Amino acid sequence: xxxxxxxxxxxxxxxxxxxxxxxNINEDPSNPQVAEGYALLPAIVSQMVRGEQFDGRYAGQYSxxxxxxxxxxxxxxxxxxxxxxAGGEKWRTHYWSIxxxxxxxxxxxxxxxxxDYVGAAKAIRAWSWQSTTDWHGEMIxxxxxxxxxxxxxxxxxxxxxxxxxxxxxxxxxxxxxxxxGVGSLTRGDRVYNGSIDKWKKFVYANLxxxxxxLSNKAIYAPDKVIEYCDKAMASNADNFLAPNRGASTTDANxxxxxxNNMQSFRQTDFSISLMDGRVFNGVVDPRISLMFTASVDGxxxxxxxGSVDANSTPIDNPKRVPILWGVTPSVLAGKTPVDITxxxxxxxxxxxxxxxTYSEMQFIKAEAAFKKGDKTLALDAYKKGVASHCDFVxxxxxxxxxxxxxxxxxxxxxxxxxxxxxxxxxxxxxxxGNMETFVxxxxxQYDPLVYxxxxxxxxxxLASENNGKTVQRVRPRYNSEYVWNRAALxxxxxxxxxxxxxxxxxxxx
Length: 509
Prior knowledge:
Blueprint: H1 2-16, H2 20-23, H3 37-62, E1 66-68, H4 89-98, H5 101-111, H6 115-136, H7 157-175, H8 185-188, H9 196-212, H10 222-231, E2 240-242, E3 265-267, H11 269-273, H12 288-291, H13 337-340, E4 353-356, H14 358-372, H15 375-393, H16 397-404, H17 418-428, H18 434-443, H19 478-484, H20 486-491
Antiparallel strand pairs: 1-3, 2-4
Helix pairs in contact: 3-4, 3-5, 3-6, 3-18, 4-6, 5-6, 6-7, 6-9, 7-9, 9-10, 10-14, 14-15, 14-17, 15-16, 15-17
């Protein structure tokens, strides 16, 4: 498609080249023809969210954040939709939607000494490499965006992880520069309003993920992880929250009822079990009513992946598991969700979408400190993670303090377990952090001792092409790689039916 675009542009230039002097009178000086950072950055941020939310639906099924309301769903069974682009939105986002737009921002910004734009653009590309390789594994790095090329070779995930660090360091160097154009980032930055300090925290948050994902390897450096976390978000005020207006389907949250993308998804029993008292010593989490919706009879229920929502009919059945965005089942009859509600929690039509949060950084820090053996530091970060997420959700101060002092929360470092940290992180990342939660669950290989009560579908419930193995990655986008680049895929086993069960580099020792 890109080459067709170039051909069309060339034909246009040749056709009208002799008329250039006459056409100049129609150029609008208030609507520049050269791409500038302030015009591109909002659209790029929007695409960051699009990729996370599109594919986050499937990552959420693998991690039992939610599941399909119908039985036998291919994603619930740890498989994929063969011959479909489903699960390939991150790939499309990285190479096309964000893609060379980063280079356009950088080229314009370098010429005008807008080093803050250069830093933000490189920070986003580093984040995109990180989040996309964690979903797909091997990617095209060295030959990416190379002109006049139709087939592309894949590079190892280890090389991509190194590229994330390299780009992040370049982003920090540029964010630390001064120049005539520095300060103009305010015009295009809808998230941080041009705050260079907060963009630096974004970079360190991505570096924290990058370093912590290596927890299974001998090169894992918990002190470096902790350092990055300390330089990342310092409070919820630093969260990277991409805004949604929510006025229509064109500017509404992908997860909201206006867009109607979550109609067939249901909260899982595993997710509910972490908050209804079954896992944490009989204490009901005060966040449960703010994040989930109870059935009409007041009981919070969830589905088991791969099973039909047995109570889905009739529509006002009191045992029906509610639709994720918070519609009360008894009022659905004869109406559409849009008639009734604008959603709750991160399912509101105008809810901002988090990319990084302070609570995530605290749980990363807690895990690193725990692995290092510093239980005092781990406990402090763990409790800060829980407290900040309570604030993020909207729990009252009294209820938050009561919960933090309850039997659900460990009070000493000696009591603290890895399961406490990772299960509370699961809650804090619920819905928006599905891609990262899937990273964590693979690092611990679906271990029920770490994710208390997590049950992997039995072998008979896994897709037949899995050969009894759990999902470890998602195949690259079908309409680019499997249509045009199959020979390169053969080199990494990408055409094998069970490719999605191949462990990623960051998981292995």
